[in-house]
Fold Ribonuclease PIN domain-containing protein.
Amino acid sequence: MVQKRSLPENFPKKLILDSTVIIQILAKDWFLTDDCVVIVPANIKEELKSFESNLVLTLLESKKNIIFLMPSSFSLSNAVNLAKQAGEYERLSSYDLNVIALAIENPEFTIISDDNAIQNLCNIFNIRVLSSFFKITKRKKYYWKCTVCGAQFSKKLDCCADCGSPLKRYFRKV
């Protein structure tokens, strides 16, 4: 018989799970204790592709301490604005934005994610986040720079507004 490992004792008890963590729950052989409350965005099935991750989701659905929610449109709008400010908007899926929005609505909860864009956004705006495997080491603020004239833009455009040339993405450490 395989022995399940519980989460570390000092681990937060109020969690919001990103899809990157769903399969890792099985890989790390974690089980969520009854005193943990977990929020998962209701549109998670759109993100999960593998049989294994869908199996884990099915197991999670049977637990009483897992809550499937969608954020309010107000919180989702705030999450989109934060993502655009940080230059992460293009890298985030609608599911990722729902994770951020749920954290805005529930500030006492901690996001668990290995997604670099989610971790970076949370670190910039002081939203609680932990990684399960891959933790980012630097906070980054992204910008786009014209390859010809050098003009800089805070959001992604199809081409340079000044000269029409292609843009390349860069970052500054925050």
About this structure: The beta strands are 5-6, 14-17, 30-31, 37-41, 66-69, 110-112, 129-130, 140-146, 152-153, 167-173.
